[in-house]
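Hey, quick one: can you model this chain's 3D structure?
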Amino acid sequence: MEQPPEPPPIPREEIRIVRRPAPIWVRMLAGAADAIVAGLFSAAAVIFFLIPVFYPETQGILYEYADRATNSFSENTEIARQLLERTSVANMVIASQMITFGLFILYYLINEWALKGSSFGKKIFGVTAVRRELDEPLSPQTMFLRACFKTLFLLFHPLLWVTFFWAVFQKDKRTVHDLITGTWVID
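Sure thing. Here's the predicted structure for all 187 residues.
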């Protein structure tokens, strides 16, 4: 028995998905959410682990500073200077800064790896980071570079604002760390 001829193939139109860059205000809110979460982890590590385990002698000094300090930061600069002249406090501050940098980098790296280009903040706002040229997921090296640059820009506040200010004038809303790593954030 003869089979009927197959119908001619239906011409397929090539479907192109147009990616839009995430609005800068969405990126700023997502970044703020990430900074709050990473900052809470960092503060908890310093307050509940670093100081009690490695610098218990600084706890009393910090309580004394809190008792002597007034509401105005400008009035407390002399007290803070005296506080940092103590070697144990200066060492504790350096160690807490190192822990903060490390935890922020780990936060961004683990988030972008586990959430496939997103972070906690990006998931809330429905945006993700991808490779700019190929529109594909980020490589581990790119995730690491993005984590390092975002941490540096976030913890050195003037740089953070410059990177977002830069993105306002970019057609595809890419920040400095996007340009360096060859990525962009899309919605």
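One thing worth noting: The longest strand covers residues 128-131.
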